[in-house]
Amino acid sequence: MSVEISWFSALCDDDYEFLGVEDPDLASSWEHCRDIVLTADRNGFDNILLPSGYTLGIDSVAFAGGIAPLVEQIQLLLAVRMGEMWLPQLARQLATIDQMLNGRLTINIISSDIPGESLESAPRYQRTIEWMQVLRQLLNGESIDFHGDFVDLELDPPRARTVSGTCPPFYFGGFSPAAKACAAQEADVFLTWPDTVGSVAATVQEMTELAAGHDRELHYGLRSHVIVRETEAEARAAADRLISRLDPETGLEIKQRALDTASVGVARQSALRDSADGDGYAEPHLWTGIGKARSGAGAAIVGSPDQVAAKLQEYIDVGIGAFILSGYPHIAECDLFAEMVLPQLDHGPLT
């Protein structure tokens, strides 16, 4: 079974040699994030996530427009926050970037609060549903006559169209009941954070049933960090080294920078870390130490090349068809994974 293997470009100030110790050379910048993307492209990854944040790093849409002419084969998974931009403008921007990529754009839908406001979960996800519906229609070249709680729009589609003439796939993650309902109704790829294989299997089963209620089918993706070395002992030592200079107060401050610190998904990552053994492993090769300084995806797959490939296969066996991986520092770990693990995987674009 072919799976999509993606990497991560640290647009939101998330790159370290030692977790929590800032390094100016690894700070989010056009030059550094460009180099991460070009490394992943050269190494044969299928896609790369360009995350979005307001207080952290650089803008994802502007970055995508800059990097699109420089990549050769990789897709871009461009994160956009629903409600942050005017819908007709966003549709035109996305269609233009897709043209620049010769049809290799994918879209990561973000439902977090937008800067300067705070909405309760139910209305925030209602806004996200409306934005996803209208954005899809516009990118499909359809006229809009939509009157909802958050979108009130009558408009013909822009002349700018995607290469295929249709909307790129929507990748979406969220673990609250409202988020899952939104994904079942509107997403194409449901993303989950690192968890035990059994928990991931249960999430896939739950989302499959929810999507079936809308006569829909979903693909599934897993967002995780990875640490691979020649031997398991070397990989575990690299994990320990990564957090060896982490001050607990600094770790807490880094986690609280994110806009999603109170989410259901973050709570699950904390519970996973609490369930781990004394070395931070929630189950074989699933290490939770990264969660000491990260509010979101807070675990890593750790091991030798064969062990990491086998762990990925366990997730594939329960329904995961795409992986968004990262490691610290992002360029160095990208090279290691590409050399040691990627050749073992049957991979290609998901959609």
Concise summary:
With 351 residues, the protein is of the alpha/beta class. The protein is built from eleven helices and 13 strands. The chain has helices at residues 30-42, 60-67, 87-100, 121-139, 177-186, 197-212, 232-242, 248-257, 264-274, 305-317, 330-340, and strands at 4-8, 47-50, 75-81, 105-110, 144-147, 152-155, 170-173, 189-192, 219-228, 281-283, 286-287, 300-303, 322-326.
| CATH 2nd-level architecture | Alpha-Beta Barrel
Give the oligomeric state of the chains in this entry, treating copies of one chain as homo and distinct chains as hetero: single chain
Structural class: alpha/beta
DSSP helical segment count:
11
Query: How would you describe the shape?
Result: globular
CATH class: Alpha Beta
User: How much strand?
Assistant: 15-25%
Strand order of the largest sheet: 1-2-3-4-7-8-9-13
Please compute the radius of gyration using only Cα atoms: 19 Å
Approximate helicity band: 25-40%
Low-confidence stretches: none
SSE pattern, N- to C-terminal? EHEHEHEHEEEHEHEHHHEEEHEH
The major sheet is characterized as:
8 strands, parallel, barrel
